[in-house]
Amino acid sequence: MVVRKEIQWDLETDVIVLGSGGAALTSAILAHDQGARVTILEKANQVGGTTAFSGGIPWIPMNRYMKDRGVSDSKEEAKELISRLTGGKEPDPALIDVFVDNGWKMIDYLHEHTPVRFSVPRGYGDYYANLPGGKNEGRSLDPQPFSLNDLGEWADKIRRNPIFPPLTLEEGGAADPGDIDFSIVADRMEKNITTMGRALVGSLFKAVLDRGIETYIETPGKELVMNDDGEVIGVRAERNGSNFYIGARKGVVIATGGFEWNKELVRSFLKGQVTHPQSPATNEGDGLIMAMEAGAGLANMGEAWWSPAFVDPTVEYEGRVYNQIDSPARTMANSIIVNSHGKRFANEGSTYMDFPKSFYEYDQVTQTLPNEPPVWLIFDQQLKDRALIVTMSPGEPAPDWVDQADTIRELAEKIGVDPDGLEQTVEKFNKHALNAEDPEFNRGTLHFEQFANRFAGPQANIGPVVKAPFYALPIYYGTLGTNGGPRINEHGQVISVRGKVIPGLYSAGNAAMGILGPAYPGAGGTIGPALTFGYLAGIHSGSAPSREINKDLKTTTTM
């Protein structure tokens, strides 16, 4: 039933921003700079959301940093690549233009009005740079190191990243391992200097503090307050165990992240179970639920930022076993990935967004998903000796949580995979791998896998699995976050199920529909659109006319 409750504001403001990731903070900064009073509400006891958890890299065509590097780009090239990757499955084609036209403007604004700084990591290009419109460098931007000491008492409240050391993308992930200067890590840790997602969030939050924008942590938004005209005029949040009502004269921006940790929403909308999300556990779809209650239309709900998940059961993060974000080892020679039948089913070197799509292949004969995780990374001692695999370093004994055996058959029996199937698969694979060939799945031919192995040639991507002992690691359903949510327009305004703007309601980031649909053109394909539409939502909400919020104050709750 519907219950109507009389309410009284505990706080009045102009714009409420729900969340504190990149989209949220950018929105708050821009709304303030239009003259609005802004209040940020964050559910967790830390600031930064999924952005702080990530590499913090935005993918932005035609940005100032690539121009400074002398890398040319154009709207036509960017759209050509994006259109090739979306295949017409983006929720609103017009928003692709909005993104390309405004992403670089957002980067310019942050550069000119905040401490946020980026650089172009050398040699780090689009994941499909070989396609028309692709670039070998420039669109994925590397956040520059930031001193958390600049945040004062907030320094220890920026969400920690469980895996990235304080190295930039260029210093770490884009560099040859032998070129990494690990003395930088110790120096930065001593000086509280951070990089990647924490650096982006830290520099954005410094801009928030400089503007005096009020931020409440441990204050989750629970319900939107709407008037009888269908306008969003506030939020019911919870603070210190009690209701906390905040009125918003101009608007509410939902930027609360995805719904990957909400099992019911995952079951309702996604194809797979997403048993191992690779994001903060506070991403439970709070914003999505509030938007649906307000009548929002939805789009892109079956999609997510897919990523293979690996697990070292001895590594915990915030009281849970940490779900590792992919592993470069799966693109390297002397390894294969197989299903429970012991069969390969995809090119192991495809992007972390593309590879998990093969998990959902349906077998019409058996009425099963034969590639449903866990699937297995099978590799030999050659790879073990030269590569970091999840948390296993070369030269160290394999830990107890890694299955190993002296023969392929024995390994298959240990992990519950069909022994005959695995033996046949390895034999077939090795026959061609000796010549660095893979006629079955064309391994070694994708731009991404060549890029991941620094274009060392197909022999870096494909090689026989022959040297005992042999090892196996399970790979699970993972996601960096969901990217379905409320429909939005060019201003980040939420569109109702009837196709009308819901006055006063905005959404951005993983809490909104993914404007790129199923596509992920390169590192930062998540954060680039998130920052851009946070920027647009901030401009529009901050400059919106003020509404009367002290008339007929009631909230509607579904019981």
Care to describe what's here?
This protein has 14 helices and 25 strands. It is α+β, with helices and mostly antiparallel strands and 559 residues long. The strands form eight sheets. Strands 2, 3, 8, 9, 10, 11, 23 and 24 form an eight-stranded mixed β-sheet that branches. The chain has a four-stranded antiparallel β-sheet with strand order 17-18-20-19. A three-stranded mixed β-sheet has the order 12-21-14, with no helix packed on it. The model has no long low-confidence stretch (mean pLDDT 95). It has two domains: 2-303 and 481-558, FAD/NAD(P)-binding domain, CATH 3.50.50.60; 315-475, Succinate dehydrogenase/fumarate reductase flavoprotein, catalytic domain (Flavocytochrome C3, Chain A, domain 1). The relative contact order is 0.20. Strand 2 (11-18), helix 1 (22-33) and strand 3 form a beta-alpha-beta unit. Helix 1 (22-33) runs parallel beside helix 7 (196-210) and helix 11 (408-415) crosses helix 12. It has helices at 22-33, 49-53, 64-69, 75-86, 93-113, 183-191, 196-210, 263-269, 286-293, 381-386, 408-415, 419-433, 447-452, 527-543; strands spanning 2-6, 11-18, 38-41, 118-119, 142-143, 146-147, 193-194, 214-216, 221-226, 232-239, 242-254, 276-277, 298-299, 304-306, 309-317, 320-325, 335-338, 375-380, 403-405, 470-475, 478-482, 485-486, 493-495, 501-507, 554-558.
